[in-house]
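Re: duplicated header lines in exported structure tokens

Our pipeline writes sequence and tokens for each protein into one text file. With two proteins the header for the second block appears twice in some exports. Here is an export where it did not happen, for reference. First protein block:
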Amino acid sequence: MLLHLDPPVDTILAVTVGAVLATLGGFVATEMEARLRRKERERGAALLFGELLTALATIIRIADQSRGHGDPFGPFTLRMLRAAQRETDAYERNRGALYDLRDGRLRLEIHVLMVRTGLALEGVFETTADLAEIGSALRKDAGDSGSEARSERLAHDRIAAFEAAVESVGEFRSLLGKLEKLGGVSFEDAYEFSGNPYPEMASPA
């Protein structure tokens, strides 16, 4: 005589429901964990680029201030601009982190402004090197009118390149506002800080 040990229907249903719920629970937990990781990466990217933009804006603003004292493109100003260029180099090294920012327009705005700033800084250094070379030639031949005319054009181009860099970082503020929301911090105080490289010349209160 054969024994039929078929499990009750309610037992099969309970096992099936349990398996479905366990699968759904695992899927939901995995999805929540992935979202949390994406959000954390986005926050990290917002902090990174927010700090880069803030540092770059601050350095160029100090360099702009220094142009009003002595040689507009003297050693101090050029040192500050080299520091600014290092910030653009840091951006290039970390550019891949841009893709952790989900806002495509924000990514594009950051990249375009950083490229514009980097090109402007390169323009300053290239014209400065060319001016030094022409200056050396003019010291040997003071009557070289062609070199004098080229020197004037380069001096004008250098000013234009510097002002382009200043204009670019002036547009950082709107980007920093967006990055603040993603990073959960404020860059306002750091952005406003520019320091005074010539405190002894500050106006009396």
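Second protein block, exported in the same file:
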Amino acid sequence: MIDATRRARRSDATKAAILTAAREHFAAKGYQAATIRAIAANARIDPAMVIRYFGNKQNLFAAAAEFDLRLPDLSAVPKAAVGAALVEHFFSRWEGDETLLALLRTGVTNEPAAARLRSIFATQLVSVVTRLSGESRARAEVRAGLIATQMLGVALCRYVLKLPPVVRTSRAALVRWLGPTIQRYLFDT
């Protein structure tokens, strides 16, 4: 029993190391350029172990791309400040976890990654927008879609394309620029 427990812990640690290396590699290189060999090297394991745990690169990406936006409860935020609070939260998520960056980088060239991104925004953001706006799900989907255009666009330009003026602009300034737009998408008709 002790050996089985020890093996299970070692197995969990190996899987975690693979997923960490995969997230870093997918974020840096994108899906197409990422290789099982490079990910295994970063995890300091044999490539056969990656195949053993995940089967192939697509399955590995799917496992590595699990992402929770961790959208905050904004009900206590004054209504006039919700847009800015949401933008600030998105910047915290982009800068605090490379999984979303890997999804964005990969989603522009890989349909499964694009589908995963759509799913994340459709399930997680639409629920929050529905609660905040008090509107039907169909209407909230439109609002969430517009919010996604802004947040994904800024993330693409700042973190992937590294567009100099967007990179140079402080996070606080970006929140001031984007907050009113997100506010409008949330509450204006």
